[in-house]
Amino acid sequence: MGNLLLFISVTNAMALLEFTDRGIYCARADVYIDPWKPVDRALITHGHADHSRWGMKAYLSTHSAGPVIKYRLGDIRLQTVGYGEVTTINGVKFSFHPAGHIIGSAQIRVEYKGEIWVASGDYKLEDDGLSEAYEPVKCQHFITESTFGLPVYRWTPQEEVFADINDWWRANAAEGKVSVLTGYALGKAQRLLHGLDSSIGRIYTHGAIENTNEVIRAQGIKLPDTIRVSKEINKKDYPGQLVLSTPGAVGQPWIKKFGQISLGAASGWMTLRGARRRRGADRGFVLSDHCDWPQLLEAIDLTGAENIYVTHGYTAIFSRHLRTLGLNAVELETEYEGELAEMETKQETMKG
């Protein structure tokens, strides 16, 4: 463990985890989990912008999350560990476990003298075949999101969703239209690629998505063949094909180059018709990299935890429901944003 000396610290504080104005803090080890303000040492669950921020002196993540974190944050001091590998800091044991959210995402297990906490970050139970599949971790204290923590959110199996997406693409191709499908540059875009039927036609990608794809492919992770949208491509090549776009690019001049399009949006928010209208989509496909209502409850049950801390989403409603189940549940104010934070930055949008 010599390569982890940056994370070794000694302190006399006895609290295991506490919630501060900088993030989730372990005073005994003097480290933060997914801090939103600059700190000396940060343990990062995954690469989305609300969990992985610039300005920390040292970062620790999983091996498979590391490349995209460095791509997004630039020249940072980053060390990585494997899933299940234990790092002990001043007697506190830390380990990363698959969260199933995106490639490299992790829950962070924290143990000291028999007391076990798990900070789950963002997670989903459905195995998408691309991310490392979620693994429940037993604990007494569980920190959870509730991005879709309302009973109305109940996902259709992903196989059915992808069948609908591919049928939509085929129908558009038959009419000579370009199918423009939106998904966040990190996570959702790669999951969509994994489920698309590339025998229907060619798949073109927005620059922000393709940049992320290149980072992921360089790790040895296979993705379907894609073509970066560029000025060199003849507009006559697009009809019948599919363009994978970031949501933010839809309202930009970039979208006009494709001519007659059918716009599809893939998101958990597509459960509600109003969300589809706000995004101007012809079709909404309900596909999320977060848990729905039943999966959130299942995940909490699998941990065996009696103490639940709800950090973002429908925190008040979800924590109140957990209390009716006999759990000690509280909602907490954090700067995590769930699926909203997975929107690309303005800078990424301009990379198209």
Automatic annotation (TrEMBL):
A molecular function (GO) term: RNA endonuclease activity
SUPFAM superfamilies per the UniProt record, alphabetical: Metallo-hydrolase/oxidoreductase
InterPro entries, sorted: MBL, RibonucZ/Hydroxyglut_hydro, Xnuc_lig_assoc
NCBIfam families: Xnuc_lig_assoc
Name recorded for this polypeptide: Putative mRNA 3-end processing factor
Organism name: Neolewinella agarilytica
